[in-house]
Write a sequence for this structure.
């Protein structure tokens, strides 16, 4: 397990801390906004590139994933990978449609 210094969350860019979990091959992210979740290196890189290149469509999905992670209960899915990220975005969209966020 390796801890990295505080940096931006790969999903929302808020202040976050990452810990590399070598045994699982994922990063554990502790984000001020998204809460705690794991993310694969592949998704972490893809999301960083989306932020860097201002890919609007992908950034819209990241906003929905962040929404899901904030609103999901403790039993909710917390693993962001190539297999799960679109599902998490769809769940976030559903939560928003149900009035889940009070801005």
């Amino acid at each position: 397990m390796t801890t990295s210094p505080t940096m931006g969350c790969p999903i929302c860019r808020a202040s976050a801390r990452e810990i590399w979990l070598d045994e699982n091959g994922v990063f554990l992210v502790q984000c001020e906004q998204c809460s705690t979740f794991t993310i694969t290196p592949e998704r972490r890189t893809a999301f960083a590139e989306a932020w860097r290149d201002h890919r609007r469509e992908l950034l819209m999905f990241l906003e929905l994933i962040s929404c899901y992670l904030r609103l999901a209960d403790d039993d909710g899915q917390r693993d962001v990978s190539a297999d799960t990220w679109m599902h998490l975005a769809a769940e976030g969209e559903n939560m928003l449609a149900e009035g889940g966020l009070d801005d």
Remarks:
- The first helix runs from residue 41 to 53.
- The chain is about 40% helix and 25% strand.
- The chain has a mean pLDDT of 89.
